[in-house]
Amino acid sequence: MDWQVLTRELSLYLENQVRVGFFGSGVGLSLVLGFGVAYACYYLNSIAKKPQLVASNDRFCRFLEEYCPVVTETYYPTIWCWEGRVQTLLRPFITSRPQVQYRNELIKTADGGQISLDWFDNNDSSYYPDASTRPTVLLLPGLTGTSKESYILHMIHQSETLGYRCVVFNNRGIAGEELLTPRTYCAANTEDLEAVIHHVHSLHPSAPFMAAGVSMGGMLLLNYLGKTGRDTPLMAAAIFSAGWNVFESVESLEKPLNWLLFNYYLTTCLQSSISRHRQMLEKLFDMDLVMKARTVREFDKQFTSVMFGYHSIDDYYEDASPCRKLKSVGIPVLCLNSVDDVFSPAHAIPVETAKQNANVALVLTSCGGHIGFLEGIWPRKCTYMDRVFKQFVQAVFEHGNKIFSM
After folding, report:
1. What residues make up the catalytic site (predicted)?
2. Is-contact 338 370, C-beta < 8 A?
3. FRET pair for 90, CA 20 to 30 Å: which of 72, 107, 231, 403?
């Protein structure tokens, strides 16, 4: 079907109806129907598209096509909110929040700090009744996210149906626990993540083990994998809406509309996350200056880069950018991004670098925003991201031997 011809015909029809006026019988209904048909044509032609699958390894591609087919199917974003910023803003309010009962564990770190882990043991699993061999998924939330985020709850719900165990890595000082040392977290420093992975693996050494990171959690996971290569107990990893190049991410977020919608709010969330630890942190930082920040860049300049010993914010952003470490990833990794994500601009996604590593596959959708990926008329229960997570995790745990020989 020639969509341009159809659209032109519909436009001529609508112009004719407008000239006739609304006094004729059924003209208003005709206009509504005509607009609806035109919008549907535009949606099907320009919005609903198959994602772009970028992978240099033919075996990895065939594995995904067979066991994770969602990455090759047309993604139909919610027809009334497909734009990236709208999807990003609405997802937290639209999607449901499955009930999850956690078991909390606090583990000590080498520097005297503590990390809060929230476990979903799934002891009622009928597929894997033996806890020692029950597959385990480590989940890493976003910048100020915790185990309470709706996207984390959905991942746990998906894992529960498959019989898997989950554990959520809450960054220091975020999930209600006290800071025992004047240190929080950042996307570049992987020491806490290394400690968590070692701890979880030591508890269940016989259990298949993989990880999934969202937004900054995905960046942190990628930086860890780039550092460790194949020397990790993780079988594979899934990455969602990671910011690949921090310089490009912050520049995008500083555009006026994006600052108004996202940047200022994120900055206040960061300030809120440290404000209750002020007594501990003001020993090393000018907290009054930190609390005056109005952008993420200003916050990172006054707080994050200083905390982790970087000479400048540029040094920190360079070290925190996963695109610089992607070549060194040594296990299978599936990365989902939307090209309309203002947190990770399309031009900053390292497509060419990914093609140089047989362990990496990128799935790029035309819509979806940042951790949005809403689909269906009323997208409360399941998003495209949830389906990618479920299929890939199941593929790795149940058919992973077909890609681990790559």
Report:
1. 215, 341, 370
2. yes
3. 72
Do you know the residue count of the chain?
Answer: 406
Alpha carbon separation from 180 to 110, 196, 278, 362, 366 (Å, rounded)? 12, 17, 12, 39, 44
β-partners of residue 136 are 165, 209
DSSP letters, 200-233, are: HHHH-TTS-EEEEEETHHHHHHHHHHHHHTT-SS
List the one residue out of 37, 45, 43 whose CA is nearest residue 2.
Answer: 45
Structure tokens at 354: 């990914």
Report pTM: 0.91
Residue by residue, pLDDT tens for the chain (406 residues) are 455 554 555 455 445 544 444 444 455 677 778 777 787 888 888 899 999 999 999 999 999 999 999 999 999 999 999 999 999 999 999 999 999 999 999 999 999 999 999 999 999 999 999 999 999 999 999 999 999 999 999 999 999 999 999 999 999 999 999 999 999 999 999 999 999 999 999 999 999 999 999 999 999 999 999 999 999 999 999 999 999 999 999 999 999 999 999 999 999 999 999 999 999 999 899 999 999 999 999 999 999 999 999 999 999 999 999 999 999 999 999 999 999 999 999 999 999 999 999 999 999 999 999 999 999 888 888 999 999 999 999 999 999 888 765 5
Interacting residues of 50 by C-beta distance below 8 A, sequence separation 6+: 72, 73, 74, 75
Q: How far is CA 110 from CA 304, 324, 363, in A?
A: 20, 28, 37
Tokens representing 384 are 């495209």
Structure tokens, 245: 């190049």
The sign of the CA dihedral 231, 233, 237, 241 is negative
Q: In angstroms, rounded to a whole number, what is the distance separating the alpha carbons of residues 290 and 282?
A: 10
The residues near 359 (Cβ < 8 Å, ≥ 6 apart) are: 57, 60, 329, 330, 331, 332, 333, 406
In whole angstroms, give the CA distance from residue 106 to residue 112.
12
d(CA 212, CA 232): 14
Tell me the CA distances in angstroms from 166 to 100, 118, 147, 246, 329, one per residue in order.
11, 8, 11, 29, 23
